[in-house]
Amino acid sequence: MDISSLLSPQDSPAAETPPPPSMPSPSLLHVQSPSKRALRQMPSRTPSGLAQQITSSPQQFHEPPPPATSHAQALYQQHHVSAMASPGMAGYTNGRVHSATSTPPLFEKPAHDARMTPPHPLHRQASGMDTLADLASMQHVQQAARHQSVGPRPSISLQNIPRTISGGSDVSMAEPSPKPPRTFNSNALDTVNLEALNQLEQALADNPFDYYSHLSFIGILHQGLQTFLYSDDGSVPTSTYELLPALREAYEAMDSKYALGERLWEYRLNDEKALARTLEQRMNIIELLQKATQEEPYSAKLWVMYGDYMTYLISCAWEPNSPENWSEEDRTLGKELFTTDLLMDTWQRGAEFVKSNVSDSSLVWDRYLQLLQDDLDRHFSPDRVRRVAAIFGERLGHPHATWDNTLSMFSTFNSRYSQSNYEAIMEHAVSQNAHIKKTYALRQEFEFNLDKAVEAGDQAAEYYAMTRYLKWEKKTIGVSSFHIVNALYERATVRFPVDPALWEDHVEFLIWQNNRSVSLLDVLERATRHCPWSGSLWSHRILTLEAEEKDYDEIERVKHTATNTGMLEHTDLEELIKLQIAWCGYLRRKAFDAPKATEDDADIAEVGIRSALEHALATGIKKYGKDWAGDPKYRLERIHIKFWTQRGSIPEARQVWESLVPQQEDSYDFWYRYYIWEMVLWSNQAVRDKTNAGQTLLTPERATAVLEKGMKRLTTIDQPEPLLEMYVNHCEQHESVLKVRSAFIEHRRSALIISVRRGKEAAQAAKESESVAEGVKRKREEETDEDIITKKSKQTESSETIPTMASVEAPRQASESPSTHSATQKRDREHTSVIVRNLPADVTKIRIRQFFTDAGIVINITTKSEADSTTATVEFATPEETEYAVALEPKADQFKTAQPVTIRRGESTTLYVTNYPAHADETYLRNLLCPYGEILDVRFPSLKFDTQRRFCYVQFSNENEAVAATALDGQNVEGLRLSAKISDPRGKKKREGATEEGREVYVYHIPFTMKKNDIENELLADLGTVEHINLPTIPAGKNKGNNKGFCFVSLTSKADAEKAVQELDGKRVWGMNIKAEVAKPKGAMGPKIRSEVRNTATPDPGTDNAGTPDEHGHTQTDPDVPASVSDRTLALLNIPDTVNDARIATLVSPFNYKKITLMPKNAGAIVEFQDVVSVGKAGLALDGVEIAPGRKINVGTVAELKQAKAEYRSDKGFATSKGGGKTKGAEKKGKEKDVAATKPAYLPSPRVNRPVARGGSTLRGRGKPGLGHRSRPVNTDNEQNAAKSNADFRAMLLGKKTDADASGAAKEVKQSTSNNGQGDAEMVE
User: Fold this and answer.
1) In 3-state terms, what secondary structure has residue 870?
2) Rounded CA gap, 1284 and 114, in Å?
3) How far apart are CA 106 and CA 96, in angstroms?
4) Which label site among 504, 582, 661, 1113 has the fewest CB atoms less than 10 Å from its CB?
5) Keyword annotations for this protein (predicted)?
């Protein structure tokens, strides 16, 4: 190539290695933009003959060095005998081997993630595949013919990619004919998925970089193939699947732009294995497996797939009873290709890569060790025994989760081959590796959190657990734990392959450790393959190549590869600039800092730096418009200035400085840098020596002129004071007396200008502050006198604390204090939260968390979807961190939204609401408060520590709306005086009242017929002034109006209360000895962790309902023997711990309930009904009812409820569950429902394999009937003995005319509860 090849990749005519040929997408066709113009070619100031000498070389990739093979394994390979008659795969039948006709797992559509935005495949040759060369050479001719028939694929350039900017390329290519749009038809997919395919096809034609469209497109096609394979009875060839060509083309299209990653490689490999029917097709799978393990070398799952498939092929080629019938020709050729040497090499390479993976390495190592022992059984020798024992010893020296199992395998091995010395060997193994078990024990909690998140399918929780794990590992890294930390980074990048932050952390860790056993270049190569849009990773790669002294061609090729993807400018221009900085810095250092630098190197740097500048400018103009002024930090220009300065071309360098003045004239940083540069140049003439003896030293006139230019911008420059100070100091130090005097005058004049400017700015700030103060004052003025009265000590409702009231029973007086748990504030959301608006509609919580990482610790994130955007509430650990978060608003333009992203503090936007009706849920409160503004969130407290809590926090979108909603404070809502105030945990005061002050007396064992007047006249007449008597009474039933046997008496002083206790305790009244004591605050009595509600309006069981005949004339129970409590009781599971007993009562009220026992610590409630029929009706009606968004009730037994565990909420914002109120059976049932609800539409229902009894449906176990089995009577009456369906049972229980009301009520319950999450939307409409 000539010198023009140093331009941006689109400007260079240098030949590039084309990507694998495929049918070009219509969106990838080369279209010459009419706005393109030829780049201005500036001639080199120092021309040379370089233009005729530089040539391009083919692309090279860095092969990762094979993992260091242990000494024991090297010895094993050295003595391994490859020639054998038949490999004889021992244990194959019970092994995990994938058949060519087996069905791979169904495609799971991954959630959209900020890290998943991920193009050229890596070409690396792995060892151990030399034996495949013969067959591979047979395929080259066929592949070449296919490639020629398809035609050359145009390279991805910035001109033919939608929404991608070019650097002004003049390269013209033949325009291939546009590919006509396809219409997808297949019996394996329904019309909805077929329509989705057509839409995704159009989306990819418009934007081939749409990662999620690629993902969804492959997912639907993959699922269609799975459906086709499930329905295939063997008569139709699998290759006749109509969409198979489209599926393979989709895989290739995505592979050409993005790394597939572990998951998609698994899907692709399983698809191809299910379709393989010829030896050539099976060899293609081997090549794909090799490529997959090259791209994801630390994926234990892919190595297991590789080894299992090799095992399968060897069995088919060698075993007489092979799992698949091959032709004799295939078997003969297969015996030449597939040997145990090749299998051993595969498992060994996989074991070496994953050996430091403490979690998943056993997947590979267990198979590898078993294969070694099987080989030892076939070819026994003492040397082999010693070598296998050494490999066992090496494995035991690495921490891993199944260390005990490995020790057990080693024990079995020694008991067979080293019986005489068994005990000594095992004792040595245990004592020598005692620290290994401790090493894993330290990580066990982190591994448990990871496994829990993976099992729950919570990607956010998994990412959080992984990052915490990595942080701990780096903090506690020891001398011997480098490989463990590196393996954890590899696990993280396998699980989250398109998160640039993880890759950058990994790279920085390797640079920090400087451990040569891990190839940094290999990590960077995989990083840029997975994240080709990350300029930071590409710059790291170029810098590492330079640091390792790679040649120019290789570094240039990497740079062109980065820009050829089109990803850098497609994502963010900042990423392109990062790459160009690394590239231009390399060119400059190569031209002047390298020991063997030549004039040709300077020519290359001159053209390359200028090209990078023009490319960045052209890209910015096309991306942001013609008014784009360039990089505000002028980083490339500074490199250009440095280049000209080092080359001695000072006028050219000064010309670059002057060209920056129009864009940077209001930046103090710019003038400072310009001034310092001029002073450095002048310093060469500032020292007196022999050459200038007797001459007048020149003053730094140019530096002075630079400062004087900056002084003209004092009214607009960002920092005028330091510029003025620098000018005066400069003149005092370096200028003549006249200039110094002039500087003093200028200082006085400029100081006045700055003073006027600052005064205007202060006035504007005061005006803005006044408007804020007026808002606060207006809010305070809206407080009524009644609000002030409520703050007194003997208030009836505390406005400063969080009150806790009984949820269904009559509330106690406000003199009670809240429980200890509720009074303790662990978090201050009101002062540690920010509200972020105008985020992209598809933004994820992980992306938001990444953006605010620099601000501090993000505790929790809640999002609300708007019409075309998302509003998020982000909670931090401290109020100071919210200040930093608000300061990040200028950086929020990286979200690239139509409206600018705003970040505001959440202070005074949350309303504290209490004393609302006990049955009120989120929908009720949203409907009540929505007229005052937009509600972002409603938070209820957990009841598992106190069931009497009844308050909530309602967050509005801004302060004005929250203040407006306080108008409801004091309003009557269903007979209750509602409290609605701005939440302020800092202003919370200790609750005051009669109980806290010790002047309330608790009197009990009083006669049930005593009235309040009787108590006041007969008990309290001589005991001082009585303020209040609280005498609870029975509201209904035959004892209606009687007291409950106790009362609370409030006196005026603590002394009067103590005197009353002395007088009343033990006093005999109306034939009873009453008891008295000073009432204790609720906190001192301990929280109420369960509550009961009794339905006194219903009749007693066994009297009114016992013996009620059904529609067939049969009685349900014996009238004289009422049903037992256990028969009349059921349990409601999976109840959120924020739901109180009043809401449960509302649900079960149509079903004649007797008592409700709320058990929030078990995430459920026990409901006792009046009769068995009501139990059946309630169970059918309530099972699956959505009581809260995303939470459906499970009906079970009391025993199941008592085994359930409470919900667990992490303070770090990741909600997890320790059981979620589900027992094992109920949890499994709920999980199946959740999977069905979240599964993509194109996935068919999973096949359920239920075990059946052997020998017929009436037998169980080993041909015997199960416990409680009752034989069916033989009867020819089909009508009466026919099997009944679920509908028949429902008709029996709910179909009676007398029960029509109850059935209708059940339907209303389901409808009302299922609409809980839609109340706000309906209200807005």
Assistant:
1) strand
2) 52
3) 18
4) 1113
5) mRNA processing, mRNA splicing, Nucleus, Repeat, RNA-binding
Q: Report the 10 Å Cβ neighbour count for 954.
A: 26
237: amino acid identity, one letter = P
Q: Is 1224 exposed, middle or buried (0-12, 13-18, 19+ CB in 10 A)?
A: exposed
Mean of pLDDT values over 149-173 = 33
Which residues, in sequence order, are CB contacts of 95 under 8 Å at separation 6+? 308, 311, 367
Instruction: Give, in order, the Cα–Cα distances in Å from 104 to each of 48, 86, 99, 577, 624.
Output: 61, 29, 10, 44, 46
Residue 422, CA atoms < 13 Å, CB-side half-sphere: 13
Q: 69: closest CA among 350, 484, 435, 482?
A: 350
Rounded distance between C-alpha atoms, residue 869 and residue 815, angstroms? 47
Neighbours of 1200 (CB within 10 A): 20
DSSP 1168: E
Measured CA to CA, the distance from residue 1215 to residue 1231 in angstroms comes to 16
Q: How big is the chain, counted in residues?
A: 1325
Give pLDDT, residue 92.
35
Q: Which residues contact 258 (CB under 8 A, 6 or more apart)?
A: 118, 119, 211, 214, 498, 530, 532
Q: Give exposure, 804-832, as e/b (b: 16+ Cβ within 10 Å).
A: bbbbbbebbebbbbbbbbbbeeeebbbbb
Q: How many helices (H) and strands (E) does the chain have?
A: 47, 25
Please check whether residue 934 is in contact with residue 956, taking contact to mean a CB–CB distance below 8 angstroms.
Answer: yes
- Assess contact for 746 and 711: CB atoms under 8 A: yes
- How far is residue 1153's CA from residue 1141's CA, in Å, rounded to a whole number? 13
Nearest alpha-carbon partner for 385 in 408, 417, 421: 417
Residue 276, C-beta contacts closer than 8 angstroms, at least 6 positions apart: 100, 282, 284, 285
How much is the pLDDT for 204?
85
The first and second tokens of residue 496, run together, are 């989250």
| Residue partners of 1049: CB distance under 8 A and separation at least 6 | 1000, 1001, 1003, 1015, 1020, 1026, 1028, 1029, 1030, 1060
Residue-wise pLDDT for 896-944, tens only, equals: 787 888 888 888 888 889 988 888 888 888 999 988 988 888 888 887 7
DSSP label at residue 96: -
Alpha-carbon gap, residue 1277 to 621, rounded angstroms: 87
How many angstroms separate the CA atoms of 480 and 475, rounded? 14
Q: Under 8 Å CB-to-CB from 1124, ≥6 apart: which residues?
A: none
| Residue 791 per-residue DSSP state | T
**CB-based contact 107:193 (threshold 8 Å):** no
Q: What are phi and psi of 940, to 5 degrees?
A: -105, 150
CB 170 within 8 A of CB 617: no
H or E element in which residue 695 lies: none
CA distance 569 to 550: 27
Does residue 689 surpass a pLDDT of 80?
A: no
State the residue for tokens 């748990």.
Answer: 821
pLDDT-derived band at 1170, boundaries 50, 70, 90: confident
Q: How far apart are CA 248 and CA 1191, in angstroms?
A: 40
| Contact criterion met (CB below 8 Å) for 1043 and 1033 | yes
Mean pLDDT of all residues belonging to the chain: 74
**Cβ atoms within 10 Å of 1272's Cβ, excluding its own:** 8
Residues 1169 and 38: their CA atoms lie apart, in Å, by 86
The two tokens of residue 1286 are: 């679920």
CA atoms within 13 A on the CB side of 307: 28
